[in-house]
Design goal:
By secondary structure, the protein is of the alpha+beta class. The chain is 49% helix and 20% strand. It contains ten helices and five strands. The chain has a five-stranded antiparallel sheet, with helices on both faces. Strand 2 and strand 3 form a beta hairpin.
């Protein structure tokens, strides 16, 4: 299994990106919000990945975080949810938002997802409510860091690009995370 890829972004389409890794260009299907967050062509990117093997093809799916990739796996355990619908869910909701919508049993919000009807949305609520991991303290600190960077005038794409870096994640306080993120943004 391919757990993650790191390389140079060479192309970006509506539902996929191409990343050059060691002289090979990998086409990776991603949720639409990842395309907005990933950066510009020529940037160095890291994506958590899932490889799906079918009789007639291999498909590599990419995500901005391992949490997003784990949610991709988890929603597919529900009958009627395949990889394309899982991508649509991840394109519509951040993992924390999706967990909140499930806990609130909000069918109206769930049916905003393209291709997700009331029956499958109800099944998602029934089977996944209470099973998704609540946001951790690290996620809350990451949100505080993102809020601070936004207040300093950085765009959502710039913030999303720096928050996953190991240097930022390794910082123990919000202040240290902000300082590490500012160093990354200055590069």
């Amino acid at each position: 299994m391919i757990a993650f890829i790191h390389g140079e972004l060479t192309d970006s389409a509506l539902d996929s990106v191409t990343v050059r890794v060691g002289g090979i260009g990998l086409r990776i299907v991603v949720p639409s919000n990842v395309i907005d967050e990933i950066g510009a062509v020529g940037d160095s990117v890291t994506l958590a990945t899932r490889l799906l093997v079918r009789d007639d093809r291999l498909e590599l799916f990419g995500f901005s975080s391992e949490q997003q990739a784990a949610l991709f796996d988890q929603v597919q355990t529900v009958s009627g949810v395949g990889p394309r619908l899982a991508l649509a869910i991840l394109s519509t909701f951040a993992p924390e938002q999706f967990a909140s919508v499930l806990e609130a049993e909000d069918l109206r919000q769930l049916t905003r997802v393209t291709g997700l009807g009331k029956r499958t949305a109800s099944r998602l609520i029934l089977e996944l409510r209470g099973k998704l991991a609540p946001p951790t303290d690290a996620a809350a600190a990451s949100d505080d860091t993102a809020d601070a960077l936004a207040a300093l005038g950085y765009s959502a794409a710039e913030i999303a690009r720096v928050l996953p870096h190991a240097e930022v994640k390794a910082a123990s306080t919000v202040e240290e995370r902000i300082a590490a993120a500012l160093r990354r943004l200055g590069d």
